[in-house]
Automatic annotation (TrEMBL):
SUPFAM superfamilies: S-adenosyl-L-methionine-dependent methyltransferases. Its EC number is 2.1.1.72. It comes from Klebsiella pneumoniae. The keyword ATP-binding does not apply. GO terms for molecular function: DNA binding; N-methyltransferase activity; site-specific DNA-methyltransferase (adenine-specific) activity. It holds the Pfam family N6_N4_Mtase. The lineage of its organism: Bacteria, Pseudomonadati, Pseudomonadota, Gammaproteobacteria, Enterobacterales. Residues 32-94 form the DNA methylase N-4/N-6 domain. This is Methylase. GO terms for cellular component: cytoplasm. It comes from the Bacteria. Keywords: Methyltransferase, Transferase. One of its GO terms (biological process) is methylation.
Length: 120
């Protein structure tokens, strides 16, 4: 059956932005098949959290970046990001993913449904 729930932490420095409307305690998301990383999160689930708790152009830090879902969500939300990943294969996958999203955003068509081959 696999994982059914996962805990997420939002930590802030200074005076973080607080949501105008309460967020649910549990966020659901559709399983994507984990195309890039075994614990990949959908960008569409991360974006509302980033937009609710950060100001535009703020820095979002993900110390366990994996394939970069949080960084993609930050980028698409108008935030800057710092992603740290220990394993080279996921670091490389994250770099490729972010580069593709940046190109798509420059062309005005960014979304999370683009195709990227599995990292070697």
């Amino acid at each position: 059956m696999g994982y059914r729930h996962e805990c997420a932490y939002i930590l802030a420095k200074g005076r973080p932005r607080l949501p105008q409307n309460p967020l649910p305690d549990v966020l659901g998301w559709k399983y994507s098949g984990n195309r890039h990383h075994p614990t990949e999160k959908p960008v569409t689930s991360l974006q509302p959290l980033i937009e609710s708790f950060t100001h535009p152009n703020a820095i979002v830090l993900d110390p366990f970046a994996g394939s970069g879902s949080t960084c993609v969500a930050a980028l698409q939300s108008g935030r800057r990001y710092i992603g740290i990943e220990l394993l080279e294969q996921y670091h490389r996958a994250g770099q490729q993913r972010l580069a593709a999203v940046q190109r798509a955003m420059q062309q005005g068509a960014a979304n999370d449904d683009w195709f990227m081959p599995e990292a070697a």
